[in-house]
What we know:
Layout: H1 12-24, H2 26-37, H3 44-56, H4 62-95, H5 103-123, H6 130-140, H7 145-170, H8 174-215
Helix pairs in contact: 1-3, 2-3, 2-4, 3-4, 3-7, 4-6, 4-7, 5-7
Amino acid sequence: MPPAAVPPPLPGPLADLAPLLDHWGYLAVALLVLLDNGGIPVPGQTVLVVAAAYSGTGRMDIAGVVALAVAAAVAGDCLGYLIGRSGGRALVHRWGRYVLLTPERFARGEEFFARRGELVVLFARFVDGLRQTNGIIAGTAGMGWWRFLLFNTLGAVLWVGVWAGLAFAAGTRIGTLYAWLARFQLYALIAVVLVAAGLTARHMRRRRARGGAAGR
């Protein structure tokens, strides 16, 4: 039986995760992905990429990595949803004004989630910050459980499939993938900020227009 291929040198923060993955293996993947999707900012996406790259060199099994990551991602988001559903609303009403989240803004957020919540849950994992909080937001906004579970599961399959597939295919070119991943995260964050700014500006224009019409 030939020896397992030596994994390629890992760039940047990926190298810091190599000893953790070498020692804990699949458990590290499951735990970090679970916490990352459950609201705790740990490198769950990064360990998924490293584990899939390891699978490309024969050090791990890609089917096991994918199955564990999908299950952990779904479970983490469900945990966040339960936290938001059980206590998120009370926290918003008690402390929201200190972070400029007034009851009126929260109500508008609930209305948006009622219309577009499934798309947020489906694609949120591709944006840092949203990946950790979309379950909590969905629970706080009162998104229906079965609708959330469906799009949570689809989102987990999509997220794990994209990053695990890219990293597994990259193999020894993991450094190139990591650089692309860093750029993608930045562009995705910029896009989210621009969309949020556009929606806010449109809302302010409509509000001023309604105020002007009422004054006339």
